[in-house]
């Protein structure tokens, strides 16, 4: 299995993992769009990294698409739109969270996308 920092575009199966220290997570949640916040909260699980409290967000990607895209997050409001006017979607919400986390605490974010083959 190859571990890469960034995105894997030619794989039939890969998984996404984002680990963020709790303090960074708590700092960025209030600034997220309510839809993005709902998606993150639906996918975040408590964990620890280097002995510090963290949140772990992960999804498996494969030939059927990512679990983020098939997400059933309970949200009744309007989803944010990207620059092309398309709805952000769950994967876009997680990417917005990741970008905000790197801005707030780049040394407290652990991100990896592991290529599972293909």
Question: How would you describe this structure to a colleague?
Answer:
The protein is an alpha+beta fold and 118 residues long. It has one domain. 28% of the residues lie in helices and 31% in strands. The chain has three helices and six strands; from the N terminus they run E-E-H-H-E-E-E-H-E. It has helices at 22-28, 34-43, 89-104; strands spanning 2-4, 14-21, 44-49, 52-62, 65-66, 109-115. Strands 1, 2, 3, 4, 5 and 6 form a six-stranded antiparallel sheet that branches. The relative contact order is 0.32. The model is unreliable at 1-14 and 61-65 (pLDDT under 50).
User: What's the mean pLDDT score?
Assistant: 75
User: What's the number of domains?
Assistant: 1
N to C succession of SSEs:
EEHHEEEHE
Report the structural category: alpha+beta
Name the beta content range: 25-35%
Radius of gyration: 14 Å
> What about the largest sheet?
6 strands, antiparallel
Number of distinct helices: 3
Strand and helix layout:
Layout: E1 2-4, E2 14-21, H1 22-28, H2 34-43, E3 44-49, E4 52-62, E5 65-66, H3 89-104, E6 109-115
Antiparallel strand pairs: 1-6, 2-4, 2-6, 3-4, 4-5
Helix pairs in contact: 1-3, 2-3
